[in-house]
Write a structure and sequence with these properties.
The complex is a heterodimer.
Chain A (H helix, E strand, L loop, with lengths): L2 E6 L4 E4 L19 H10 L8 E5 L4 E4 L3 E14 L2 E2 L6 E3 L4 E17 L33 E3 L26 E5 L8 H9 L2 E3 L7 E5 L15 E2 L4 E3 L7 E3 L6 E2 L3 E5 L4 H5 L6 E2 L1 E3 L2 H20 L1
Parallel strand pairs in A: 10-19
Antiparallel strand pairs in A: 1-4, 1-9, 2-3, 3-8, 4-8, 5-6, 5-7, 5-8, 10-17, 11-12, 11-18, 12-15, 13-16, 14-15, 14-17
Chain B lengths: L1 E5 L4 E6 L5 H16 L5 E7 L2 E6 L6 H9 L15 E8 L7 H7 L4 H10 L2 E6 L6 E4 L14 E4 L3 E5 L2 E4 L4 E3 L2 E5 L20 E6 L2 H13 L14
Parallel strand pairs in B: 5-13
Antiparallel strand pairs in B: 1-2, 2-4, 3-4, 5-12, 6-7, 6-13, 7-10, 8-11, 9-10, 9-12
Classes of the chains: A alpha+beta, B alpha+beta.
């Protein structure tokens, strides 16, 4: 038990879990960890049940002091964690003694860092989730980003410290420049032929103006047929690529609104979502088209690898 | 006609007809109930909006083609299921003044009196066609054609929680104070969204709404009663409750 004292949060530090599912019909954003893959790995490493809240840091890592013995794990962006000034590895269970401080060197690649603690961060469950909804100002820690001095209680854990490690094959390389696989979106046919080929052939830059809601891309302007960029508002999803009237695509992330009125031109395949979640402003990306059938097959492989690990 | 459209690899959309209509919305509502009744373990969320039902699924358990096969069984269930008639509510609204600052503007643009705007707005029967934008925001179909009006070119920085507005062919209710581009003609004292409660949302998509004009004094009384948890929202008198 005990607590975690936030000594120095990052630019945006929030508590997140698997997301607030079941309320999209009322307009409630799902939220949750942006990189669901790193979130799951981190919880597995500290033997937490599914859906324990973790700390999501942005563009760096927070300094946190733990008041009691615990197991922690750090996954996600490439960054050097330290426990009481001593370097410790990512993707591995780490032992914390009462009073130890977790801190970080600066970020090498990627964008978001996930820290799980045995027992999870014990904040109230609101509408089935502990995730912070910045949009609605609820969930997580008082519905807001963490601040210096916040003291977050830890939940009850199973007890025994069990050392685990993520196999190398399952550790993503976020500096990898491979294109992101995309499936045509529900309104892909609205793109002009030139726009579609520009989208698939060009390099896009992640704009500064990106957040947990979505990534704004900078690149060649894309046009819809007849320059019509309005559709009847329809459902969004994590990884959906929308095309507003200015022709610059937006990729939706965890805090996306549930519906949008822009054509949904493409969807970033779910097995790529951890790479998507780790893009940071200034990163350059390309897209590669993949059919739904093939994407589903690749997704199944990806998920099988994860569930095999979780059975260990 | 019903079509299935993939929404990425972990969701699909059931589209009823080519555009929104009261009939297509009713079929969407029936489909939603039918899918819900089956309690499929692989359905992670359901989002009805206008003439569409988006089904989010767990790709570890089922894929797009298999789910379409499952859902085709409901194709014919569009006709009225008497067990589940839409709910129907009466929503009190105080029109004009501070609680509806755009009422004079709408009246002027439509060349009618403010009273006429209020009458037209509160005589219509609305259906919640979708919810979104902010948690609990209601998009209402059924607005009288005489009140159609484009949204403001420059949205307000803030409208009050409960604000009732008009934009193009829809009316809407803001559950929370937020920026807003709709023509704000009145405010309801009802609380549409309370995150902490067992039923966080007062309304859901498919519900029918009628507005009832009230004076400021009644507005304040209802607001107090809502705060104290003593106010029970009226089922609309024209419909018999289930």
């Amino acid at each position: 038990m005990g607590s975690a004292i936030i000594e120095r949060p990052t630019f945006l530090s929030t508590l997140q879990d698997g997301g607030r599912w079941g309320y999209q019909r009322y307009g409630m954003p799902v939220s949750g960890a942006t990189d669901q893959y790193a979130y799951r790995l981190a919880n597995w490493l500290v033997s937490n049940p599914h859906n324990c809240a973790v700390l999501e840091d942005t563009l760096g890592g927070s300094s946190v002091v733990f008041t009691e013995d615990a197991a922690i794990a750090v996954c996600g962006a490439d960054i050097q964690p330290c426990i009481d000034e001593k370097n410790v590895p990512l993707y591995q269970t780490l032992k914390i003694r009462a009073g130890d401080r977790l801190s970080f060197h600066s970020l090498k690649s990627g964008c978001r860092v996930y820290t799980a603690v045995s027992g999870g961060f014990d904040v109230p469950m609101v509408m089935g989730s502990r995730s912070t909804s910045l949009y609605a100002g609820m969930g997580g820690w008082k519905g807001r980003p963490l601040r210096k001095g916040d003291i977050i209680p830890r939940g009850q854990s199973g007890g025994v410290f069990k050392e685990k490690q993520i196999p190398n094959a399952l550790i993503p390389d976020y500096s990898d420049k491979e294109p992101l696989d995309v499936i045509p979106g529900p309104e892909a046919k609205r793109l002009t032929r030139e726009a579609l080929s520009a989208f698939l052939r060009s390099e896009y830059e992640v704009s500064m103006d990106s957040n947990r809601m979505g990534i704004r891309l900078k690149g060649p302007e894309l046009a819809c047929r007849g320059n019509n960029h309005d559709i009847q508002s329809s459902a969004t999803a994590f990884g959906m690529v929308q095309l507003p009237g200015n022709g610059q695509p937006i990729v939706l992330l965890a805090d996306r609104p549930t519906m949008g009125g822009y054509p949904r031109i493409a969807y970033i395949a779910t097995y790529e979502h951890h790479r998507l979640a780790q893009l940071r402003p200034g990163d350059k990306i390309r897209f590669r088209e993949v059919g739904l059938l093939k994407a589903q097959k690749l997704l199944k492989n990806h998920l099988n690898k994860l569930s095999e690990l979780e059975r260990l | 006609m019903i079509r299935y459209v993939p929404v990425g690899d972990s969701a699909l959309c059931i589209r009823v007809g080519d555009e929104f209509s009261e009939e297509s919305a009713e079929i969407v509502r029936q489909l939603l109930l039918a899918v819900e009744d089956n309690n499929y373990s692989y359905v992670t969320d359901l989002l009805p909006s206008y003439n569409e039902l988006t089904v989010f699924f767990n790709p570890a358990e089922i894929n797009y083609e298999e789910l379409v096969q499952q859902l085709r069984a409901f194709n014919t269930s569009g006709s009225g299921n008497v067990k589940h008639r839409p709910r129907s509510f009466e929503v009190p609204v105080c029109y004009g003044g501070n609680l509806g600052p755009d009422l004079p503007l709408v009246a002027e643009a439509k060349k009618m009196s403010e009273e006429r705007v209020v009458d037209l707005h509160s005589e219509a029967k609305y259906t919640i066609a979708a919810m979104g934008f902010t948690p609990g925001f209601c998009y209402l179909s059924g607005l009288d054609k005489k009140l159609f009006m484009p949204r403001m070119s420059r949205p307000r920085k803030a409208v009050a929680a409960g604000a009732v507005g008009i934009a193009s062919d829809q009316s809407g209710i803001y559950p929370l104070s937020s920026p807003g581009g709709w023509r704000w003609i009145g405010t309801t004292p009802l609380r549409l969204f309370s995150a902490g409660s067992a039923n966080p949302f007062l309304f859901s998509t498919g519900d029918q709404i009628v507005f009832k004009g009230i004076e400021k004094q009644e507005f304040d009384e209802i607001k107090e009663a809502v705060k104290a948890g003593n106010f029970i929202v009226n089922y609309c008198k024209t419909e018999s409750p289930e």
